[in-house]
Amino acid sequence: MSAHPPLLSPGYKSTILRAPSEAPLLLAQSMTELTGPVLGEGPVAAADADLTLGQGGEAQGQRIVVHGQVRDADGRPVRNTLLEVWQANAAGRYLHKWDRHDAPLDPHFTGLGRTLTDADGHYRFVTVKPGAYPWGNHPNAWRPAHIHFSVFGQAFTQRLVTQMYFPDDPLFRYDPIYHSVPEFARDRLVAAFDLTATVELWALGFRFDIVLSGASATPMETR
Amino acid sequence: MSTPSQTVGPYLSIGLTWDSGPYVVSPDAPGAVWLRGEIRDGAGEVVQDALVETWQAGPSGEFHTAGFRGFGRCPTDDDGRWAIRTLKPGALSGQAPHIAVTVFARGLLHRVYTRLYFADEPANESDPVLATVPATRRPTLIAARTGDGYRFDITLQGPDETVFFAV
């Protein structure tokens, strides 16, 4: 049973005109699907893993460390893969021209981070806890606090974009995006508070492990 | 135990836009072509907050060719258009030249996956993937030749809906 949400999830209004109506066709996987980009260190600098030091100052809000391990469906660590994150600031505002939420922007919060997983598939970045923010989907619609994650994996079929949520958010029960995921898999989107990752007098810690799909299908080509 | 997918949301360009994203090869690379297209929803409206990613073999038909990134990424603009500068891939054993295309957007809870084939390739006639696609829908996978490359429009929903694959 798939952990992924159905593309048509009408509670989330934007799916209504964007979800394909036809079922996807089955595809025998070939090298096109079983390989994927190796982006390496080119696009990533060490400072890109800290979202809180923009323009020579410190971002406002509750500083947090987010870390975890990326694995594949067989439990193997996914190493040296690019992880990209983006999020609202502590007040719940994105640094984007379309975000008109009446909450302050923070010049010292960059809103985006990049890092590569290490040889054991681990990643770590420093940010602030994002605020909840209103959106127009339904009356009193507020998104639970979340961080957007993008991960490549080692095959194009493993490509994943998801959202990390925070434990015990009172907005979960009202959020159609969180609820689009089958109930049995929703907890996988929620980070665990992790005291061992907390930095004394400085930041709270959260752990968010990511499991990508398997990449072990038989190639259609002979080589 | 896979981690579920979630939408990229409307502000994906914050995290996913790179200056070099659309350039699989430099603009002046010999033989480079533009792949251009627009994305429309079920009402025929352009999708201004989508992201196209491409993955492909190099001209020799091999993946991970030295000096060839193989990967392209371009968000759609206010007109719902994207453009990627690349080299046409070579034939892959048993398959016509093609490029993997995946689309992310607000309102897509999981990325959708398709393939771009080239209109001027006789090998399309015997491609094993195209053969699985009903003939009436096959044209949605064929990029048309243009002055500076190829055009590949994507329709997420409706009568001209692009064929998407489960991967």
From TrEMBL, chain A:
Gene3D superfamilies, per database record: Aromatic compound dioxygenase (2.60.130.10)
InterPro entries: Intradiol_dOase_C, Intradiol_dOase_core, Intradiol_RC_Dioxygenase, PCDO_beta_N, Protocat_dOase_b
Every Intradiol ring-cleavage dioxygenases domain range: 66-94
GO biological process: 3,4-dihydroxybenzoate catabolic process
Alphabetical list of PROSITE patterns matching this protein: INTRADIOL_DIOXYGENAS
The organism's place on the tree of life at top rank: Bacteria
SUPFAM superfamilies per UniProt: Aromatic compound dioxygenase
Keywords: Dioxygenase, Oxidoreductase
Family (UniProt): Belongs to the intradiol ring-cleavage dioxygenase family.
Protein name: Protocatechuate 3,4-dioxygenase beta subunit
Organism listed in the record: Actinoplanes friuliensis DSM 7358
From TrEMBL, chain B:
Entries under NCBIfam families matching the protein: protocat_alph
Native organism: Actinoplanes friuliensis DSM 7358
Phylogenetic placement of the source organism: Bacteria, Bacillati, Actinomycetota, Actinomycetes, Micromonosporales
Any one GO MF annotation of this record: ferric iron binding
Domain Intradiol ring-cleavage dioxygenases: 33-158
Protein name (database record): Protocatechuate 3,4-dioxygenase subunit alpha
Family (UniProt): Belongs to the intradiol ring-cleavage dioxygenase family.
Keywords: Dioxygenase, Oxidoreductase
